[in-house]
Each structure stands twice: as structure tokens, then as C-alpha cells.
Specification:
Elements: E1 7-9, E2 15-17, H1 33-44, H2 47-61, H3 66-69, H4 74-101, H5 128-156, H6 169-194, H7 197-208, H8 223-229, H9 233-238, H10 243-260, E3 266-268, E4 274-276, H11 280-288, H12 300-303, H13 312-328
Antiparallel strand pairs: 1-2, 3-4
Length: about 325
Amino acid sequence: MNDSDFGSENTRGYWIPNKRIQYPPVFVWPPQLVGFLKWLPKYVFPWGISYALLAVFVWTFLTPSMERLTTFSADWIGLVFLRNIVLTILVVGTWHLWFYVKRAQGTAFKFNRRWPLEDSPAFLFNNQTKDNIFWTFASGVPIWTAWEVVSLWLYSNGYVGGLSFAEDKVLFVGLLLLLPLLHEFHFFCIHRLLHWPPLYRRVHRLHHLNTNPGPWSGLSMHPVEHLVYFSGFLIYWIIPSHPLHALNLGLMAGLSPAQGHTGFDRVVLGDKVSLNLPYYAHYLHHRFFEVNYADGNIPLDKWFGSFHDGSPEADEALKQRRKIRSRSE
């Protein structure tokens, strides 16, 4: 499969998709029923349903019983931590193995044709991938686990929750379907906060060292950012929910950044078969720093003036915004 059929490489070595980034016809007026119905399967498949099914599997087979969770204990907390470590290795490791170890498709569909830095003092161990892996396991997975452990303890003691599949199937399933949108809204809010200059310099800058991200860059963050990033668990402490919803959120927040930071537009599965990875918008955020703070379903960036659709016109608009800001400073 030739990536020149889907995009082109500019003089600076960046591959740019032909198709511009667009928002789905969801948050529009007047409503577009046909457009919404066409978008809905793309919203659910493959990622939404994948994480929901993984959450069901994890809740059923890899989470201690509610009775055990009522008291903090090193044995079950250790099991949850170990489970999250293994899931991270399996999921993030698979993306990394395909794209960066085997280099199964070379640089085809890679936004930045260069590979991660292996001799740079900007990173721990002078190596981008090793740095990313360190922050993922030294801070990311432990803090994710801490939020999950407290959530499970709260559910098991009846302090939060109150929703069951048997009593309200519609609301139960509806919350699972809404989870990606709730996660996106939360992510946009905390992401804008992290770009506040004092927090950016002291905290978020670590993540943005990855201007040419790879799968392990997804959770490569400062511990303070991990605390804020995984605070999405608070959503389910407030609204009626089930532990499965909190698990789904944790798995999506912990594992999906890997696919969002692959640095590739597509996974090539054959001469004529590929899987689209709709994360060019977030790649542009890593490249330009001040655009596309959200994930792309809710037009938050469009509403707040930070949207970049990947076009030369958007490049020029960004340059003009920067010029205006520099004059006022």
C-alpha cells in the first residue's frame, strides 16, 4: 500500500494526509440525523467497543470481589497494580513492536519520517523511548492504579455508585456509550489548564518533549500531570454509576494514549487493507503545541479558536495568531 495515494510529503519531511480533519455532525444545529447515524458506527467501532469489552473482561476475571475491596489490603492492591502493568506492556508494547521494533511498514503513513531520538540530552538515558517507558511505569501506571483502587474501595463500601445493569439497563449502557465523550471533555479541560504557562513549564513540558511521539509517549508525563489526567475517575464518584464504568474509564485513559501517539495515520494490514488511526489532530498538537487540545468528537477547539485541520490555511492562521500575540506581549 502506497501512502502517496493518501497524502504527500513536504520539503521538511512531514507526511500530510490529503483528507482534512473534520468534526462529526453531532454537535450541530439544526440536527443532521443522517450524518449522525453515519457517524455512530465509527464512534462505537473499533475503539469504543474494544475498551468496553476489555472493561467487562477485566471486571469479570481480573478484579477482586467486592467483598475483598471493602478494606485496603496490599494483596488485592498489588494484584490490580500487576494487572495494569501487564495490560500496559501488552497493549502499548504491541503498538511499539509493530511500528518501531519490527518497523513492519517502514515510514509509510508516518507523519514525521524520522525515528525517535536515541542520543539526546533532553531525555532520561539520552533516549526518547527509554525515557517514555520510565515515566509510564514509574509514575503513570502507579497513579492510574491509585485512582482505580480508591474508586473500587468507594464502590465496595457504598460511598459512590448506585447503578446496576439489572435495575437500569438503558442508563447503564448509555453511560458506557457516553464514556469517550465524557473523557474527551475532561481531557480538554485539564489539557488547557496544563498549557497555562506556569504549569506548562513545570509539568506539561515533559510530555511535549515528544515532538515526534511514539506509543510509549502517551503516558510519558510528569507525576503531577498523571494526577490531573487520571482525575477523570471523579466523574463516576459524582454521578450514579457502576465499578465497570470506572474501570472502562481507567482502561481508556491508561491504554488509548498509545494508539493516539503512534505517529502514524494508518496500520497497514495488506496490499489493499489498512486500519485508519484518527489521531492526526493530536499529532499536530505535539508539533505546534497550541492547537487541537481535544480528541476530535466534540468541537471544543473550534468553539475556543484552537482548531487546526491540517491545511496550509490553518498553518497560516496559526502564524498570524502567534504574530498578534507576540506584538501584544
